[in-house]
Amino acid sequence: MKKKRVNVQVVPDYRRNKNEGRFPLKLRVTYKSERKYYSTGYSASLDEWELINSSDAKGKLRKIKLDISGIENDAQKCCDEITSFSFKQFEYLFFDERIIFKNVRSSYTAYMDQLVANDQYATSITYRTALRRLEKYHPDLKFEDITVEFLSRYESWELSNGKSITTIGINLRTLRAIMNLAKENGTISVQQYPFGKRKYTIPTSKNIKKALTIEQIKKIFDYPAPTLSPMEKAKDIWIFSYLCNGINLMDIAHLQWKNIETNCIHFVREKTKRKQRANPKIITALRNEHVNRIISKWGNHESKQDGDDFVFGILSAGDTAKDIRRKVQQFIQTNNLWTKKIGVELGFSLALTSYVARHSFATILVRGGAPIEFASQSLGHANILTTQQYFAGFDLAKQAEYVKALTDFKI
Question: Is residue 175 predicted with pLDDT exceeding 70?
């Protein structure tokens, strides 16, 4: 049977009218009557597009003509080499190798296309937000504009506009990732790269990590939430997270019956699943009477015969990546809403969220005498430095006990 040809062509996207009557130029890929559009980083007015497609293109327009011709040729070659074509396979092969480094915007846009192609919607939104802030500070941003002085001024501008150090750090880490790709690509030189030692250091917040004491944890266990209410379910999910190695709510939503064994639960963090495809880090959480009770009470037992079905019924087998993202966000928001209410009623000074469950697991584990290496392994961290950031330190009573040794002159 003859293989159906995939057609590729760069065309103006008339759905997206930019400023001054300009349209983004998109790579259009057509297969079996289905079309998808991908950013090239270029735009043109109708008059410019006519010139680009004529023999009269000169200067800047001629360069654009040659560049988009190269994009078309590379994309067609990529499509032709795929034995059984799918858009997902094309996106994986083409965008992993090709980021358009014409300027900062085109690089961000192409990278965001790649993230969406990989179903990393939340990360793509982070990059889009960062690009919006950077362009608000400096429209038409080019790589040569990004210097140590530029980054310092941008930081000051964001602070003057009421942005936190955490927000600034998130935005600039996306820029650093794009600059790293540009450096690897040869678009900028090592000398032009502005981040690192004796250059610009991305600010980090000095927030002290907070975790509950074991006495506070007991109060949560004993809290009398109404039976079978949303509050009771949120409380139990929080306890499940705390007892199962601080598993976050996204990973709870993704738990399948095949992950549940007689004495333990095995899972791989969704956050690191893509990066660790070749050698996934499997986390093992031990089951106990509390964990068993929660699975028995809230588990979707009708689906238990199929190991691929989800334990808590938050997700369904046919969900798209967009469905999963929406359902997980709703799950997180609902659970945190109820657990925060519990925290307020118990008089806690910090908001009782799933984040606190994870940090409490790490902190109480280490305070109880477990090696930090064990905590790191249990949390699924790649290195101990990350675990140390989770560790909330010793409470004041414990510090006072240790400080006594400084003046304990007994022989």
Answer: yes
Q: Are 118 and 45 in contact (CB under 8 A)?
A: no
**Which one-letter amino acid corresponds to residue 215?**
E
Q: Say which amino acid occupies 369.
A: G
Distance CA 224, CA 232 (A): 8
Distance in angstroms (rounded) separating the CA atoms of residues 312 and 295: 8
Residue pair 200/155 in contact by the 8 Å Cβ criterion: no
pTM above 0.90, yes or no: no
Q: Which of 34-43, 74-83, 322-331 is least confident?
A: 34-43
Q: How many whole angstroms separate alpha carbon 68 and alpha carbon 9?
A: 9
Cβ-contact 237, 247 below 8 angstroms: no
Q: For every residue of 173-208, which 3-state class applies, written as one string?
A: HHHHHHHHHHHHHCCCCCCCCCECCCCECCCCCCCC
At 256, the amino acid letter reads: Q
pLDDT in tens, 386-395: 666 655 555 5
- DSSP per-residue letters across 61-81: HHHHHHHHHHHHHHHHHHHHT
C-beta of residue 159 within 8 angstroms of C-beta of residue 168? yes
The whole-angstrom distance between residue 178's C-alpha and the CA centroid of its chain comes to: 15
Q: Which two tokens stand for residue 180?
A: 């790293």
Q: Which residues of 204-226 are buried (b: 16+ CB within 10 A; e: fewer)?
A: eeeeeebbbbeebbebbeebebe
Query: Is the CB of residue 365 less than 8 Å from the CB of residue 378?
Result: yes
Cα–Cα distance, 294 to 172 (Å, whole number): 41
Domain ranges of the chain: 7-185, 214-399
d(CA 177, CA 192): 15
Alpha carbon distance 335, 321 (integer Å): 21
For tokens 């600034």, the residue is 168
Domain 214-399 class in CATH: mainly alpha
Residue-wise pLDDT tens digits, 191-206: 899 998 889 999 876 6
How far is Cα 269 from Cα 311, in angstroms, rounded to an integer?
16
Quickly tell me which residue has 């660790």 as its tokens. 276
